[in-house]
Amino acid sequence: MKETLHEYLRTARSALVWKLSGLSEYDVRRPLVPTGTNLLGLVKHSTCAELGYFGLVFGRPIDQPNPWFDDAEENADLFARAEETREGIVAGYRQACAAADATIAALELDSPGMVPWWGDESVTLHQVLVHVTTETARHAGHADIVRELIDGAVGYATSFSNVPEHDAAWWRTYRDRVEREAQRARG
Q: 125-147 pLDDT, tens per residue?
């Protein structure tokens, strides 16, 4: 069971990172929704989750900065400052994931931990693995929408999008149909 959960986490991580591929520095950073969601910020935020949940929660501190705890600015983990490089943020994410993978490998699913930002709630590795996997998949979904807004790329990866392959005309027709159905439902 642990390996299955871990594989789902790895898949979500990969989907999140590939969303940066082939884009300009501006495109990986630009906010496309009112809350400021951006691709590089999602990776940076996910780094913090990996560090916090698989490090601090299980008493396995990781020698890597974590904006959740190290930066006083609200939402500092959700965007990249101009001086922060894409390469540095992705490398930090990969380093955090490797440290998290070491925790996952070293502990049993019933190993106890404590989440201070949940009011010192007791948890198990199983709970944390499910939590971080669902959060990473959720953020990969955010990234999927943001990437689609930038250049139309969607899905898990360039080699397997998991979205039906159709040309732009087909998608316009489909989108128009969805809009018509929404209008009809509105009355």
A: 999 999 999 999 999 999 999 99
Fold designation for 2-162: Four Helix Bundle (Hemerythrin (Met), subunit A) (1.20.120)
| Residue found under tokens 């979500």 | 12
Cβ neighbours of residue 72 closer than 8 Å, sequence gap 6 or more: none
Q: What share of the chain is helix, strand, coil (3-state, %, to 5)?
A: 65, 5, 30
pLDDT digits (tens, 9 = 90+) for 70-89: 877 889 899 999 999 999 99
Cα–Cα distance for residue pair 145/151, rounded to 1 Å: 10
Q: Return d(Cα 150, Cα 9) in angstroms, integer.
A: 25
Angle between helices 2-18 and 125-151 (to 10 degrees): 20
Residue 107 in this model has a pLDDT that exceeds 80: yes
Residue with the larger pLDDT of the pair 81 and 168 = 81
CA distance 46 to 65: 13
Cβ neighbours of residue 69 under 8 Å, at least 6 residues apart? 52
